[in-house]
Each structure stands twice: as structure tokens, then as C-alpha cells.
Write a structure and sequence with these properties.
By secondary structure, the chain is α+β, with helices and mostly antiparallel strands. Helices cover 32% and strands 16% of the residues.
């Protein structure tokens, strides 16, 4: 009887894990105050193509909840909030990006998959009370050395803005990417599988 109970508990754990693994939610359902500016839903991105049919951001629910906590902290303590450029990215989009820029400093190899493909990575910046983006030294998707957090080729103001974003994201469970000041991986990204579903 004890053995049967242990087997049932094990199977329940697998089912629960699988259910959690498929839980992708619209970010707006978790925090509607995070501004969404989905560049890949327009041609205003490095591919010069419209890659997403929808300008909505989707994430794993737990990652979205942690991002909302970071946003709340920034609003209360620094009078700024988060703007997000990208979250979940289907694998087929990753393949298009890799064809255009096959450089794993900036675009993950689709053969391995990216954190974005798991719904567990975000591309973000900060905006002030008027909705204006804070100076980060480079625009989003600037694939130069200046986009690196450690770059010395940005102003002190830009460095401090990057530092605030980076430290806050780390505090709320996200790991930074050294070559892109805007990119952060949710700490438990490896618990989620790669998805190739469309965005609606």
C-alpha cells in the first residue's frame, strides 16, 4: 500500500509539473501598469519584418508575477516603472532571427533554444512618470559593445539607469545578460520547455 501511495504521489508530481510548464499568460493579466512596446509586432526591429501577429506580451505566470513585483518596487521607491519590449518568443521566430543575425552574443541559436522560447526571459527598460524612456546609453537591440552593461562608452547617467534596472531585476529573481543591458532571464528558466506556439 505504501509503495502504491508513493507511485501515485510521484505521478501527481509529474502531472502538476507539466501543468505548470504550459502556463503561459498575458502579462497584462498580471500587471497592466507595465507598458508594452512589442517591437517584433512591427517592422521597427533589427529584422525589418513583422514577426508577431499581436502586440501582446506573454510570459510564464511565475515570471510575470516576479516582474510585477519588480515594477511595483520601482514605482514605490524610484518613481519609475518598467516598459517591456519582448517576452515569450515562439521558436519559429527564433529561427528567422538566427538566419539574419547568427551571433550568439545577441541571438540564441534555435538549435539550443532561448530563454525567450521558454517564456522565461524579458527585454525591458525603465520609463519615468511621463512615459519617457530613461537614458540607457543605447536603444533596444543595439548589437554593439556599447550595449554591454560594463561598457565605459556611455554616460554616467546611463550607467546609473542601467544599474538601477539590473539591481532591481536581480532582486526579484532575474539574471542579467552581460552583452545586452535590456535582457533578463527568470531564475528558473530551465524548468520550462521550449514552445513553438503562435502569439494571439
Amino acid at each position: 500500500m505504501k509503495k502504491i501511495t508513493l507511485i501515485l504521489l510521484f505521478l501527481l508530481g509529474i502531472i502538476t509539473s507539466a501543468q505548470t510548464d504550459t502556463l503561459i499568460v498575458p502579462l497584462k493579466s498580471i500587471d497592466s501598469t507595465i507598458v508594452q512596446d512589442v517591437k517584433y509586432a512591427t517592422a521597427n526591429n533589427f529584422t525589418k519584418q513583422v514577426l508577431y501577429p499581436s502586440a501582446k506580451v506573454f510570459l510564464r505566470k511565475v515570471a510575470a508575477e516576479h516582474l510585477a513585483q519588480a515594477n511595483e518596487f520601482l514605482k514605490k521607491n524610484h518613481n519609475v516603472r518598467i516598459k517591456i519590449f519582448d517576452g515569450f518568443r515562439p521558436l519559429f521566430v527564433q529561427k528567422i532571427m538566427w538566419q539574419i543575425l547568427p551571433d550568439d552574443r545577441y541571438v540564441a541559436d534555435p538549435a539550443k533554444g532561448s530563454r525567450h522560447n521558454r517564456g522565461a526571459a524579458v527585454d525591458v527598460t525603465l520609463i519615468d512618470g511621463d512615459g519617457k524612456e530613461l537614458d540607457m546609453g543605447t536603444p533596444y537591440d543595439d548589437f554593439t559593445e556599447r550595449a554591454s552593461f560594463a561598457s565605459k562608452d556611455v554616460s554616467e547617467k546611463a550607467y546609473l539607469n542601467r544599474k538601477l534596472l539590473r539591481e532591481t531585476m536581480i532582486q526579484f529573481g532575474f539574471d542579467p545578460m552581460e552583452t545586452e543591458w535590456w535582457h533578463f532571464d527568470f531564475k528558473d528558466w530551465n524548468k520550462f520547455g521550449i514552445l513553438d506556439t503562435g502569439i494571439n
